[in-house]
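A favour, since you know our structure tokens better than I do. Could you add the entry underneath, on a fresh line?
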Amino acid sequence: MFELVTKSVAQEQKIETRTAVRRVSGFTIVATAVAVLAVLIATAVYAQDKYSLKSPSGIAFSDFRGYEDWSVVSSARTDEVLKVIVANPIMINAYKAGVPANGQPFPEGSMIAKLQWKPKKSTEAPFVVDVPDVFKQAFVMEKDSKRFPKSGGWGYAVFNYEAASDKFTADPNSPSDCGYACHTPVKAKDYIFHPYQKR
């Protein structure tokens, strides 16, 4: 009889031990899953940071999501910045169809971004050449005649980049018509300076 009681107590202890191990294992799995989820959420929030920005006039940077992969229209240079002008597929297709040289305006939904870098002299090239150094800002335009009737149907915004913090900010001095005065001289080209360059 004593042996039965001893066996019964030993079996109960084994069952309790297994149950405790299962609880600890389950807790570890849940804690690990929560930690992984927290990291993923933090990464997603950080990655979306620039796309949560809006200019003072309400132009959302998220409207230009994917601009990093848009086709190049042209490039330009001033003494202070190197510029690469890119456009979304709607605008690229319009360019290829002859807009604005054919007298037609760009279609609604056209978007263009002027990406600007501070230049530096290349230390690697065997000749004198300026190359992009620090990214400075994205100057963006979007065609929406209903939203921007007073500026030729185009909305304008500037999103500045600060390399030290690796963050974009909406330029507080950037109302929706900030580029309109500058772009008025090319009204006949639907307010766009840069033609689609031959390639």
Q: What stands out?
A: The first strand starts at residue 71 and ends at 77. The domain at 54-189 is CATH 3.50.70.20 (Chalcone isomerase). Residues 142 and 149 are 12 Å apart (CA to CA). Strands lie at 71-77, 82-87, 111-121, 130-143, 154-162, 167-170.
